[in-house]
Amino acid sequence: MAAHWWAPALRGVLAILFGLIALVWPGITLLALVLVFAAYAVVNGVVTLMQAARGHTGRSRAWIGVSGLISLLVGLIAFLWPGITALALLLVIAFWFVVTGIVEIVAAVGLRRRIEGEWVLALNGVVSVVFGLLLFVWPATGALAVVWLIGLSAVAIGVSLLVLAFRLRGGHRAGAAGPAHSV
């Protein structure tokens, strides 16, 4: 792995660039994510419809065809109305935070006699519910926050990959010289 130290270095640089682009242009980043999803959904729909038409599914051709048609339509909607698609995705994320938060609170209450520190699980649940509700109330700010999290995560990952790469590079050079022999 040390001989190919440049691979994590390249990945690190690309991750940092992606993260900085996401932080500097969050609107474009969000639009790009929606358009990538839209392209995937359209291609998936076309391929699924082709499978249904050819009968290479091993399952009901009608259901596979319906699935392909829905995927194709969702992809086209995402291309035509990217703002609505981004909002819908954000609302799904908000719903997920609220539901998982409620489940964690209920679990914490149920575990309060069996474990110590159940309050941490309950607190996590409360934070999840609050975050989900905030996404519902302020979806535009929530979308911006999600893009910023993606950008910051990409920069952090890029920095860690660069650190790894330079450690590998340093280890490769030391290993190339060979071990010192004492007589």
UniProtKB/TrEMBL annotation:
Membrane-spanning intervals of the chain: 5-25, 31-50, 62-81, 87-107, 119-138, 144-166
Keyword Membrane recorded: yes
Key words of the record: Membrane, Transmembrane, Transmembrane helix
Domain of life: Bacteria
The keyword Cell inner membrane appears for this protein: no
Coiled coil spans: none
Assigned GO CC terms: plasma membrane
Name listed for the protein in its UniProt record: HdeD family acid-resistance protein
InterPro entries given in the database record: Acid_resist_chaperone_HdeD, DUF308_memb
Family matches, as Pfam families: DUF308 (PF03729)
